[in-house]
Amino acid sequence: MHKGATTTDGQHDGKARQGYGPLHRTGDRIEKENIPFVDSDHADDGFDSRNSPAASTAISSVPAVDQENDTMTESQENLARAYVKRHQPSLAERRMQEKLTVSIDSSINDGDLIEEAKDKATELKLVDDRARALRRNSISLPSLNVNELEALRLGHQGHDGSVSAMDSGSDSLSEENTFTPETPITPANFKPMLQFNDNSSSDEDDKRRNKNLFRTKRRSSIAPLPALRLNDKEMMSNDFDTHSVLSNQASITSVNSLASLLKEKMQNVPAIIRKKKRETKDYKLRVFVGMLFLIIVFLVGYAYVMYNQKLLAKSYFESIKFHKKTRNFRLLDGKSAELLTGVLGTSLTIEQPYNCLPKDLKDDGSVCYEWNSKARLYMNLAKSPGPDIKCYSFQWESLLNDLYPTDCFDVSEERGFWYGGGLTKGIEYILGKASIPAGPFVTGDINTHQWGNALKRYFLNSRGVAIQVDEKTPLYISVNTDSGGRRLCLQGRNDKFAFVNHQTRFPELKYTICSGPDMKTLHNGLMQKSLWDGLTERDNDVIKSLLREPVWQIPASKQEDLTEMAIYNYTESIIALGYLRLGHVLVNEFWQRTIGDFRLDAERFPTLDETVNILHRRGFRVSFMIQPFISTESTNFREAVAKKLLIYERESERSIPALTRYKSTTSAGVLDVTNNASIPWLAEKLKKISETVEIDSYFVDFGTAFNIPRYYQCSQTLVNPDEYKNYFMERFEGTLSIFGVSSAISVPRPPSFLSLPPVNSSWSGLQSIIPTMLSYGIIGFPFLMPGPVGGDFVLPTQQLKKMYSYYSFELPPLPDKELYIRWLQLATFLPVLRFTHLPSEYRDDTVTAIAKELADVRQRVLPLLERFSSIAMDEGLPIIRPLWMLDSTDVNCFSIDDEFSIGDGMIVAPVLERGETVREVYLPQGVWKDGIDESLRKGSRWIHNYHVPQNKVAYFIKMPDNTRF
């Protein structure tokens, strides 16, 4: 036996453990199996225990063994270095290891060890007592760096056969006796280790260890002590249970698995701390999820609002560009070309607007801007009449009483040709050529006012843009009157007459801009559709009779000129012509003694009932002209005042009537048609006339807006004086048969025709007819009745200091023969042929021959008139049309105002100049048949120096599209 070897098996086993490998007996010799060192905590750190200098001093009695493999291999050295880098003990661990380096008594019983290993809290023992009772089942490498390993290797070379055992505080305890070896001499930075010698193992234990050389048996982890509360302060087990901490750190199930190491470390955390951390983590998670939910809700809501604003902005600004500060405005087409340009809010200074407050926003989703408590602008999409038409609404709300919102648009020819509004004072067909100072947009006499007897708040551009102004806007219009260039300006402005009845507290301007693929498509889409509503068979007969038969207006410029005998003689002259049809005999307002009597003058018409019966038997229709004016000299005036049937003065009792002037009457009251009592009163008066004389229909002369009293007030508030006409037509719609009106702002119900304003009996008067017909047709009046052939009055030759209404002038004498012929040639192609002077009055065979020839032409024109009058009832398009309605892409058609077409079937080009027998004629696309020589002519070209003799009129009939020369 070797020196130092005991006779008991336990001693051999214990020494074998100290040598870090099992010993095998071969006779009297004990051989050590050459097994590399494997730590239970770090299986990848291989180390030979024989290289330790401490081992040589701890077991000096162990015989020398073969040192062939005592040297640390390169792989072992690398593993050791990796261990040092990965598991460098902290300062607290080193101090704990120093406390645990004690001598263990070899007389400790196995029962104490079993009791100590139970996973339950026991009485807290002293460190020394616990150190003696600890049982270790795993071995851990000391904390060594490269220098320390080199020192160990050098020390090992100086000691033969010495073997030492080292433990970092986690070695397994022997089952029986242990002893405290001498402390080896180590470098200063080497930590003291717990040294032991266990000889109590049996052979069976050796066999089990031999089966798993690289993994030690896992012992049950020592449960950490529960938390203690000391002086109301909770102490974690880490604060006092150092042994359990170290033991748990040393209880590693896998040497190779980093996941097992992390799992073991997490399991060693005291349960109470894990619980608190878990609760803290859950609380933070709930807070995070809640905040995330609120953020998502906010983002979704914000995205929804921004998306809607983006859609609205896209809907606006894909076609409209509006600079909020300068308020420059541009309307673009699908190719980003400018259709309309202008400046909005010219009455405001240049400043940055703000978004309107929520309380000022509208429910329709309008975009709203406010200029510093001065005005607000609302912009929105408007309802479009067709799929190819886009409309946008604009509304200004002034916030100051003296601030009038004004929007101006470029109407120069570079931006296209502008039409509409109505007849201007200068008879301009193209609106951009007019010069109109700012004034109320109401009807008037073009001799003294800016606008004519019929208006529509509708303006059309040849590029396919239209502007429609709301009826309730107190509209002022100016054209080319400021330094801003050629501009059409719309202004919302209250005044003391036209817009004295404020619809809102402050002035407003509201309108709609629409754009289409071309002017014709846009215009057709915006026109009023279907005028057939409520039309009776009798009404349809009246329309046809007005187209087929002339209107014979009895010439009488004075009351004494109109008598029963004058009516009879005039109808006899009509019959004597023999080539014109008998038609409507129109008797002007002088059939009563004074305006407003509503009964026949017995002195001048003693037997008018008999005369009318004679006219009916001959085939005439008799019509009387009536008006809502009552002269102060009339017997009905006192009755109307007593019954409060008249318009009364503003800010006064209703018993004080407001007076005005009408035609030859210098003082007259106006029947208040908004008063429900006035309609039955007037109907009763007219009924009495019909009981005496059979009247077929009536022509209503409303005058103009300026014939309404200056300080007027009605039972129901009017937006403007022109609204009076609409009330009258609506109230008497089913009571009277009205075939014509003198003024209108909306399409009168058929069979009523709108009469053109009275014109001077001159060449200039003749030249004004076609532009007037075209202008009224464009703004939506399809059924038009021109004045009598030869004109309505004659202006005096001397220069007038002030121009008065035409009512001041007498009927003209017989016009110039050439003027009359050219006038008759033009009237032949118009919807209604109206006469005051008969062709027979000239007693000239030439005039008679021309008149007969034109009567035949009229018969060829009637089918076209009837055909397109029916289309006008369906689509609202005029019978007399401008040439661009035949081809809206032909630029040559835009400015022509001395030609017109009847529907799309005929073009008429009359001579309108004195002494002219040639003229320029333009034909739109297609093939046209010349009405004079019946030759075929190709369209889309000018006919220069076209010869038109005095007895001829130039007209061209549209041929089918497949016509070939």
Topology:
Layout: H1 9-18, E1 23-26, E2 29-32, H2 53-58, H3 74-86, H4 91-100, H5 110-116, H6 127-133, H7 146-157, H8 203-211, E3 228-230, E4 233-235, H9 242-250, H10 258-267, H11 271-317, E5 320-322, E6 328-332, E7 338-343, E8 354-355, E9 367-370, E10 375-382, E11 390-398, E12 406-410, E13 418-424, E14 436-440, E15 451-461, E16 465-469, E17 475-479, E18 487-492, E19 508-515, H12 519-526, H13 537-548, E20 551-553, H14 564-577, E21 584-587, H15 608-618, E22 621-626, E23 629-631, H16 635-642, E24 648-649, E25 659-662, E26 665-670, H17 678-692, E27 697-700, E28 712-713, H18 723-731, E29 738-741, E30 753-755, H19 763-767, H20 769-778, E31 784-785, H21 817-827, E32 834-835, H22 845-875, E33 880-881, E34 900-902, E35 906-909, E36 918-923, E37 927-930, E38 936-938, E39 941-947, E40 954-958
Parallel strand pairs: 20-21, 20-32, 21-22, 22-27, 27-29, 29-30, 30-31
Antiparallel strand pairs: 1-2, 3-4, 5-6, 6-7, 7-12, 8-9, 9-10, 10-11, 11-19, 12-18, 13-15, 14-17, 15-16, 16-19, 17-18, 23-26, 24-28, 25-26, 33-34, 34-35, 35-40, 36-39, 37-38, 37-40
